[in-house]
């Protein structure tokens, strides 16, 4: 193998790995941004005391709820199921309190506690 060929091959390999590295960094940054956004949304929702469903109904985070993970019914915070046997550390979703709606709203506390 000539030196030129070897150098070309080296350059090609380096550029491929640089590209892969860049994509990896971009993917990591996107994940970090998503988690940060989720945590910020959780804090905002906790400060407001409500979450809003897809149709725009505000549901209070305090009241009577049924846990989306284990079906436990309780009064308290919509985000934390008091059932000790519950497999979820935090409620995965909340159902809209509007009787005609009932859509599920993803829990804003999924990433970071409020
Ligand atoms: Zn609704
Ligand atoms: Zn539960």
Task: Please tell me about this protein's structure.
This protein is of the alpha+beta class and 114 residues long. Helices cover 40% and strands 19% of the residues. It is built from one helix and six strands. The chain has one helix at residues 3-48; strands at residues 50-52, 58-60, 62-66, 73-77, 93-95, 104-106. Strands 1-2 form a two-stranded antiparallel ribbon. The radius of gyration is 23 Å and the shape is elongated. The mean pLDDT is 82. Residues 67, 69-70, 72, 81, 83, 86, 88 line the site of one zinc ion. One zinc ion is lined by residues 53, 55, 57, 96, 98, 101, 103.
Quick structural gist:
By secondary structure, the chain is of the alpha+beta class. It contains one helix and six strands, in the order αββββββ.
Low-confidence stretches: none
Separate helix tally: 1
Lateral strand order in the biggest sheet:
1-2
Radius of gyration: 23 Å
Q: Could you tell me the number of beta strands?
A: 6
Q: Based on CA inertia axes, which overall geometry fits?
A: elongated
Mean pLDDT: 82
The residue fraction in helices comes out at 40-55%
Strand and helix order:
HEEEEEE
* Beta-strand share of residues: 15-25%
What is the CA-CA span between the terminal residues?
Answer: 62 Å
Main β-sheet, in a few words? 2 strands, antiparallel
Hetero groups: zinc ion
Class by alpha and beta content = alpha+beta
